[in-house]
Design a protein that fits this description.
This protein has eleven helices and six strands. By secondary structure, it is α/β, with parallel strands linked by helices. The chain is globular and about 55 Å long. The structure holds calcium ion. InterPro entries: HAD-like_sf, HAD-like_SPP, HAD-SF_hydro_IA, HAD_sf, PGP-like_dom2. This is HAD-IA family hydrolase. Keywords: Hydrolase.
Length: 248
């Protein structure tokens, strides 16, 4: 399966080989088991503002900017975009609830994946739509020795947000690598779309409630049920990535 995935990627991008130098990690649902808190906070605030929404919607919208999500709900409910004032109010209420619910639980297996990636000699970067303050302190606390402030893409860097490739293109730039020299680890359909649109080999981990097919339809090159499964398969993936070479 790894072999087919890499061969397919190389053919699609007219490359002869991968040259792994960096892994770009999404944050919520990949490094932290936090998506259930985001979904709950969004759902409660949406209901409070009489917006049509289900819990599952927020797993489908995951990766978008707050403004993008709020406009989607306003269009669906009121057939118009939210005003600046409405956007600010709703996003603040959502962020307050998320902070209250979020317990900072790391995603099981994520620390193992990071250690494997480090042992393989690859850079580790975070690419997230999150605008939480002191994110780097939080990351350094949970995953010491892996991330640096200069090598992060957050809500403060991006204008457009996923599923647009912008965040991941910025991630490549900060890592100083080309698309075929990186991997992305993502859990959300729109995050996968963004990474694929940036031309990067994209590993999906289905840590949420959506069917696997939503991640495959978004274009994921490989799919694992969780971060533990990816950690267990990492060495196989690296061996294949460094071995497979197509004839030009
Ligand atoms: Ca995510």
């Amino acid at each position: 399966m790894i072999q087919e995935a890499i061969t397919h990627y190389l053919q699609k991008h007219s490359q002869t080989c991968l040259y792994p130098k960096a892994v770009l990690f999404d944050m919520d649902g990949v490094l932290y088991d936090s998506m259930r808190f985001h979904a709950r906070a969004w759902y409660e605030v949406a209901t409070r503002h009489h917006l049509i929404a289900s819990i599952e919607d927020f797993y489908l919208f995951e990766g978008r900017t707050g403004e993008g999500t709020i406009n989607e709900l306003f269009q669906r409910t009121f057939h118009r975009n939210a005003t600046e004032e409405e956007t600010r109010t709703i996003y603040e209420e959502k962020s307050d609830l998320f902070r209250a619910y979020n317990d900072g639980t790391p995603m099981p297996g994520a620390a193992d994946v990071l250690e494997k990636v480090k042992a393989s000699g690859l850079q580790r970067l975070v690419v997230t739509g999150s605008g939480q303050h002191s994110l780097i302190d939080k990351l350094n606390h949970t995953y010491p020795g892996h991330f640096s402030r200069e090598k992060m893409v957050t809500a403060f860097d991006v204008k457009i947000g996923k599923p647009h490739p912008e965040p991941y293109l910025m991630g490549l730039q900060k890592a100083g690598v080309k698309a075929h020299e990186a991997f992305v680890v993502e859990n959300a359909p729109m995050g996968v779309e963004a990474a694929v649109a940036a031309g990067i080999f994209t590993i999906a981990v289905n840590t949420g409630p959506l069917p696997d097919q939503t991640l495959l339809d978004a274009g994921a090159d490989l799919l694992y049920p969780d971060m533990n499964a990816l950690a267990n398969d990492w060495d196989n993936l690296m061996k294949a990535a460094r071995r497979i070479q197509l004839t030009p």
